[in-house]
Amino acid sequence: MSERREVAAVAMAGLAGRADYPMYVVTARDGEEASGCLVGFLTQCSILPARLLVCISKENHTAGVASRAGSLAVHLLGSEQLELASHFGERTGDRTDKFAGVRWRVGTTGAPVLEDCAAWTEGVVRQRFDLGDHVGHLLDPVAGGGGGAQGQLSFHEVRSLDPGHPPGDPRS
Ligand SMILES: Cc1cc2nc3c(=O)[nH]c(=O)nc-3n(C[C@H](O)[C@H](O)[C@H](O)COP(=O)(O)O)c2cc1C
Question: Is residue 141 part of a domain?
């Protein structure tokens, strides 16, 4: 790592290590398959019009599927959904069909909507941005609702999970 990058990483770690935020599962479907991963880099970025920015690592299996999909579904995880977080965050679609054994349906935009979550939104991809090692997907929400799960799972509760595809993964 260059010295400049190292300084930036240390400066970020001080901020990002302290901040807490909700965790989501983001899903996508192209003509061939459904894919999804655990995501923390996700935020509302406009009120009127309502818009969401979803950042997906280029290393992830989901990155390829999301790049070919016209829409994504975003699911806020409930406080008791650590197992689902591990399922989508510690496994990779390169080797596993994560949707086998998970309750889901095809949403109005064609994105896979998980039945078990705290809340969900489906959004049409308006624009994509190269952000570095992640791609930002700007979503126009078109449908959404509540799930049965209570509370919210946050980053500090899942930070010890081992990502199926760590950033800069030499396997990919
Ligand atoms: C705490 C935590 C936060 C994560 N945040 C993100 C994120 O914001 N964006 C992302 O693309 N991947 C994120 N990941 C990584 C993916 O969820 C993980 O590598 C997953 O296994 C990729 O699955 P896939 O290869 O099937 O897409 C996170 C993982 C963990 C454990």
Answer: yes
Pocket test for ligand 1, best of 57, 68, 97, 154 (most atoms within 8 A of CB): 57
pTM above 0.70, yes or no: yes
Contacts of 9 (CB under 8 A, 6+ apart): 1
pLDDT in tens, 125-168: 999 999 999 999 999 999 999 999 999 999 999 999 999 998 76
Q: 61-120: per-residue pLDDT in tens? A: 999 999 999 999 999 999 999 999 999 999 999 999 999 989 999 999 999 999 999 999
Atom of ligand 1 nearest to the CA of 63: 27
Would the CB of 58 count as within 6 Å of ligand 1?
no
Domain that holds residue 40: 21-158
> Residue 68 domain-assigned?
yes
- Domain assignment present for residue 163? The answer is no
Q: Which residues contact 135 (CB under 8 A, 6 or more apart)?
A: 55, 56, 58, 63, 66, 67, 128, 129
45 within a domain of the structure (yes/no): yes
**For position 144, which CATH number holds?**
2.30.110.10
For 35, the 3-state DSSP assignment is: strand
| CA of 39 relative to ligand 1 center, distance in Å | 5
